[in-house]
Amino acid sequence: MALALTKVGVVRNPRSHANRGRASGAPEGLYWAEPETPRALAEDMRRFAEAGVDLVVIDGGDGTVREVLSALPAAYGARPPVLAVLASGKTNVLALDLGAGPDWTLAEVLRRVGTDAPSLKSRAPLEVSWADQPPVRGFILGLGAFARATQMSKAVHRMGAYHSLSVALTLTGAALGTLFDRKDSPWRRGVQATVALDGAAQASGPRFVLIATALKRLPFGLKPFGPLREGMKVLDVDAPPRGLLGALPVVLAGRGDGWLAVRGYRRALADRLDLRVDESIVIDGEVFPGGEISVRLGAPLRFLAP
Question: What is the pLDDT of residues 36-46, one digit of tens each?
Fold first, then answer.
């Protein structure tokens, strides 16, 4: 039978890459929001919840997804709506993970809702908390070289590269910057951080990169976290990175756990990640302050997918 969704709301970011220059306006019968600020988004989500909206379509990039997911708990409590993600941003790693490409439009989402067997996929976001600011929910957190590479992505976007190509060029630039820069460069020096996984302290010292994600699939089949699996995956690399030229293809192919670990490249699966880092971190493409940070795997959310 058809999915029992009776009210559909759309959160559209008109500044997202694919939405620029396109006419705006709510199709008949849909709840519509184009919030300009996080506060406006929070109000829109409360409006959706009060109206009984049970499918929220997110029309934007990774940042729009992050903001909507972060606003859901206050609006919907423990009963979040089904979500659908349209890949209209410069990067859409969650949409890629869900298999939602350019053909996954609002019209197609609405058509799929009425079919006999709509596809629902479950994804649990990361919940990132600080002592002095509201928590954030997203799917990729990183520091060190990951944060610097994210800043590089702005130049990549100006070159006209988006989505998977943007991710690939950014990773390539980060690797080349590390391999061919001087030995005392910020890339090689890393950032000072203390790390604990599920309450167990990890190796002390600077980190070249630390990345945590709840995603299953990355662009071009890259597997830096090892085999595809559920849960929060962590890649933790000491600085300066040892033998990066030889280790990089092994890391990206998801192989060599034992060989890599003795060289300071560690993969892990965890329910909880605790960090103390003075430099900024990145969550789904946005820079956030460092400090005492707690990362948990949140409750699974349901996504309508192609």
Answer: 898 999 999 99
Residue labelled with tokens 């994804």: 123
- The most distant pair of C-alpha atoms in the chain lies apart, rounded to whole Å, by 62
Q: How far is 126 from 129, CA to CA, in rounded Å?
A: 10
DSSP state of 81: P
pLDDT of residue 165: 42
Distance separating alpha carbons of residues 213 and 219, to the nearest angstrom: 14
Cis geometry, peptide bond prior to residue 300 (ω within 30 degrees of 0): no
By C-alpha distance, which of 220, 49, 86, 208 is closest to 144? Answer: 208
- What contacts 134, CB < 8 A, 6 or more positions away? 70
Flag residues of the chain having pLDDT under 70. Answer: 1-5, 15-26, 116-117, 151-185
**Cα separation, 212 vs 294, whole angstroms:** 12
CA dihedral 225, 230, 231, 234 (to 10 degrees): 0
- At CA 214, angle to CA 212 and CA 218, rounded to 5? 90
Residues 6 or more apart from 243 whose CB is under 8 A from it?
263
Amino acid in the structure at residue 109: V
Task: List, in order, residues 6 or more apart from 100 with CB less than 8 Å away.
Answer: 84, 85, 86, 87, 92, 305, 306
Contact (Cβ atoms closer than 8 angstroms) between residue 119 and residue 305: yes
Q: What pTM does this model have? A: 0.86
Helices 62-76 and 38-51: angle between axes, nearest 10 degrees: 50
Q: What local confidence, expressed as pLDDT, does residue 218 receive?
A: 81
